[in-house]
């Protein structure tokens, strides 16, 4: 069988499997980034809090999830979650091992890792906002929600977007580690295709090429988003 046939979309080709794996990778990364935004926002707020207990908890979160290897986090969530669900099932009379959905566990694990990095991005973005603008808004009696909507959030978005693009790339690569749970993302699809055909070099190169393609498209999307936010900020600044 030729290389074109193996990478094609025919009956014996693996092109469709690889593309479905790439789609699963993108969906998983989007879910992880969304969860990470929630975790990161809460942790950033804790690290910026005036309460020492919250600052310590926020520091502990970022230290743990940035310091522990990503694969170990995924193993702990997958096998620990399965053990927990199995124990709960046994309390209710269930027999045997109860597994957890690989996609859900992967999204939560990568999301919590992503959240540790996003927290630092958001914290730095908030600190980059001019204190003078916020003080001026308070001085004229602007309500807190209005100040957040018109001053804080637009500037935080502008400052944080480049960092979020980097976190996206990190999460995109971390998603490959979810293959250890059996989820059919891109790396797992490449492994299955390589094992079935014994063409390991071909399919791992094909998988790498798809990762590079996703990275290139992501860079273009975030680049355009940064340019759009920058133009919008300049227009609003000139209008004000």
Task: Name its key features.
single chain; 240 residues; mainly alpha; MetI-like fold; 9 helices; 81% helix; 0% strand; flat; transmembrane helix; transmembrane; transmembrane transporter activity; cell inner membrane
Summarize the structure in words.
The longest helix has 40 residues, at 200-239. The protein has a single domain (3-239), classed as MetI-like fold, CATH 1.10.3720. It contains 9 helices and no strands. It is 81% helix and 0% strand. It is an all-alpha fold. Helix 2 crosses helix 7 (144-174) and helix 5 crosses helix 7 (144-174).
What would a concise description of this structure say?
By secondary structure, this protein is an all-alpha fold.
Q: Element order, helices and strands? A: HHHHHHHHH
Largest β sheet strand count, sense and barrel closure: none
**Amino- and carboxy-terminal Cα gap:** 66 Å
Mean pLDDT: 88
CATH homology group: MetI-like
Helix share, percent? over 70%
Q: Could you say what the CATH architecture is?
A: Orthogonal Bundle
GO molecular function, one term: transmembrane transporter activity
Main location: membrane
InterPro entries: AA_ABC_transptr_permease_3TM, ABC_transp_permease_HisMQ, MetI-like, MetI-like_sf
Family: Belongs to the binding-protein-dependent transport system permease family. HisMQ subfamily.
In terms of topology, how is this protein built?
Elements: H1 3-6, H2 15-47, H3 52-67, H4 70-91, H5 102-128, H6 131-139, H7 144-174, H8 186-197, H9 200-239
Helix pairs in contact: 2-3, 2-5, 2-7, 2-8, 2-9, 3-5, 4-5, 5-7, 6-7, 7-9, 8-9
